[in-house]
Amino acid sequence: MGCLVEALSRGYDVLGLAAATGGDEVFFQLVLARIIEPVSKLDSLQVLEEAGLAPAPYRTVTRRLWVFARDSWRQQISAACAAHARLGPASLVLYDCSTLLCRASCYADAGHAAAGHGGLLALDVGIFIGGSAAGRVGSVKLTV
After folding, report:
1. Whole-prediction pTM value?
2. What is the pLDDT of residue 78?
3. Which of 14, 18, 26, 102 fits a 20 to 30 Å CA distance from 83?
4. What is the span of the domain harbouring residue 96?
5. Same domain, 139 and 73
6. Which residues of the chain have pLDDT under 70?
7. Is 45 found in the same domain as 10?
8. Residues 112 and 97 both lie in one domain
9. Same domain as 53, residue 108
């Protein structure tokens, strides 16, 4: 996966994220791992190992999370992305609500019970990926 890691690292640098984060290695590793495979923080360490990198210890990752949650951190990331996209004064919010599997208790009588499902009803609510941007000239909502 050397070429993949190299390409993703280059993209990270081109977007200005390395400069915006002050070269924070833990943040870089989390971003890299989640692009390769969107998994939990703990599982991201295995993804990095499989990619040939030496991941930061899990305790280090969890200790850094409070830094990543700060408004100032998010503003640095947003500013770097906006500068790369030449947005000017704007706010950009991206979000991903991936496919969810909901299980609802079903007090179904014999006429409504799904055979073999023990009274549980599975609902696939679909995939929604979108975002919104707001600037001096108004706002727009993006949906894919």
Report:
1. 0.62
2. 84
3. 26
4. 88-144
5. no
6. 1, 88-144
7. yes
8. yes
9. no
